[in-house]
Write a structure and sequence with these properties.
The protein is of the alpha+beta class. It has a three-stranded antiparallel sheet with strand order 1-3-2. The chain has one domain. It is built from two helices and three strands; from the N terminus they run E-H-E-E-H. The longest helix is centred in the first third of the chain and has 19 residues. A hairpin with a 2-residue loop joins strand 2 and strand 3.
């Protein structure tokens, strides 16, 4: 799940959003979750959360990501 932020505060906002994602994971006792932030440019950043498909629906309903993408870990 991906949250996109644009504008001069995009980087700070994405970093702050990841803090809330980690809080949600702890409170809701999500079994598997990985979060992160990527800075696309000076004016665009994203925060993301990777989780198991079994937990995806609840998290998506609760947190309303801007978009989603299937993540397949390559061995």
């Amino acid at each position: 799940m991906i949250w996109e932020f644009r504008g001069p505060a995009a980087k700070r906002t994405a970093i702050h959003h990841e803090i809330h994602l980690k809080e949600y994971i702890k409170i809701e006792e999500v079994m598997f979750a990985e979060t992160g932030v990527e800075h696309i440019s000076e004016m665009a950043s994203i925060a993301y959360l990777i989780t198991n498909e079994s937990e995806m629906e609840k998290i998506r309903r609760d947190l309303k990501p801007h978009r989603g993408q299937r993540y397949d870990e390559k061995s």
